Queue: 2 jobs
Job 1
Amino acid sequence: MSFRTHKIALKPNNKQRNWFAQQCGYARFAYNHALADFKASLDDDDFLSIFTLNKRFNQTKKEYDWTPEQDQRAAFYSIYANLASAIKNWVEKRAKFPKFKKRGKHDSYTTDEQSVIVRGKRIRLPKIGWIRMSQVLRWTGKIVKVTISRTAHRWFISITVDAENIKAVEQSTHPVPIGIDVGINTLATCSDGTKYDNPRPLKRFEYKLAKAQRKLSRKKKGSNNWHKQVAVMARIHYRITCIRNDAHHKASTAIVNHASAIGIETLHITNMLKNRKLAKALSDSALGGFLTMLKTKAEARGIPITEADQFFASSKTCSSCGHKKADLTLSDRIYQCDECGFTLDRDLNAAINLRPKLAPGHRESQNACGAQVSPHSEARAAESGKVVWKQLTLPI
């Protein structure tokens, strides 16, 4: 089985938005009620099972006249899936004890997948009927899970299907191995000279976000105006996320479309964020998320990815002669080798060093005409904007 998940934006009307909010509230109500029973059972030295917790909730919900109108699968999955997973992670010491859910934070619910019907850009959900979607499904197959969630002011639906006979995406006609150096000013610098800009959306909206935060601080917490201002801030954060994800998707897709193999560096983002001078810029760039996205797309296309050693000095090593320069600082944007005098852009030099190596015995590659191309001439061509296409024999 090969599962594929779509996350598609919905286009609901006001009635459908209210319905989604009610189901998220019902799922949150069931989760909190079962968690309260489980927490009380620990005080009595009685470890209640998920089956017992769900049975207790089914007895309690009969006391409320509004529960029969809700989607009962929302409460069922909230207990049997979400709470069960949280308790299991706590028992196996992978996470802390589960917390009660709050309104407006991670609102979502899972519905019955067997009653869902998808036709083009429309989907039919239990008890609410047909709802418009922004796009069609990219894969077809049996639907195994359907989850509706809210991010800021928009509603999304995640549809997991058991897609059969998935074929690998065809690669470009001239695939070459590519090394990638990621950074703050430039999101990705490839060994063929291609660069992808980093939009830095947080820096762009920093003033607007600070202004909205000041307005929020002047309002009474929990009031109607306070909730309205929280929604305004959520929209700003959502806009920042969309700009960042758009740049990551475009860059990663363009890279895998022209690569037969990819070499990247090993980054420990947690350690890098300890530098208070770079922490905000690193968080704004989200380099770890970009590399994860690149790995996922490369794996789907069957493109091998090579990660350099953690302590490999890709920026300090000369891509022409291999000499390691010890006194290279972050402010030095041009690399100049002390041994051979080779000069190149710092990020491009690091990207060439990160490119996957050739097979043993093949120190040079051939261009389209069959002539030998040295790393020195290749770097010069990349720097001038002329890409040297190579036919390489890669190790399996």
Job 2
Amino acid sequence: MLVGNGGPEMIEVRSDVPVPRPGADEVLIEVAACGINNTDINTRVGWYSRSVTGATDGRGFEESQPDDSTWGRGTLDFPRIQGADVSGRIVATGSSVDEALVGHRVVVDPWIRDSRHPERRELAGYLGSEHDGGFAEYCAVPAGNAHPIDTPLSDVELASFACSWSTAEHMLQRVGLEPGQSVAVTGASGGVGTALIQLAKLRGARVVAIAGRAKLEGLGDLGADAVVARDDPEPLEAAVAANGGPFDAVADVVGGARFSACLDALRRGGRYATSGAISGPLVQLDLRTLYLNDLELYGATVFAPRVFADLVGYIERGEVRPVVAGVYPLEDIHAAQADFERKDHIGSLVISLR
């Protein structure tokens, strides 16, 4: 349970938290596993506050302002149970929900939308941020967010998908990546990056992945057509060379000083999508690069429900495979988050509750 903005000491593992009661349109899930994501760290330290300008390195709470410390520029209510990547089984339903759902194995769409205006992104809240999430034995969510799933994958493997893979799918849908096109993926060894590689290959695209030198072989195993070390003096230029020319799209989770190089790597009419800024949120933009090259820039955060439904379909058809780098019991969540912040892994880290 997160009891305030700050360091790892603000996470308390407690045994006195009552089991939530599902509302009329909700289901109660017995959580089997829940993945760890940048969102968990960023929310804990208040990195989303505009007063924070540094990288997502587990710091920032010294500068953050409590009135804009969440992704939606609002105030986070404490205590809060974090965790957006829930897998488990439905064990109870609200009064307006079909009881036949009890017993179904599910994965959870983490965007809790306004039931009256689901299309209004500004009204959406995130599991583990505006709503209690899955770092607990039980979690209550709207029934429409709990997707029954038929797959031989384990609960831990399923818990690696929700946040990072739906983010990646959203990015690729926003840029409209098509067969035969090319995409550069920055930060390619993380949860979103490894998902981007597989989802782009599923679309029949050519992928050039940029990541730490020690991780490049693993990214090739995931399907990347070419790999470039991020410590190359000019990694985006090296990526263009490896691609044989400029890209149709760049999927960027890094930001920071190399943002402008991402735009320079695009062909005329190319598309750029971002869902993060692990190297820092403040970037330099030469507007001439944008308008003279007819570029399209996309942010990717709140997605339509079809994005998650598409992801569930990929999983059930066996078209993608999870990448789990480590599994921890809930009691070791501090160590799990510390390992996540070091970013020495490829793929996702997961908390197991069963």
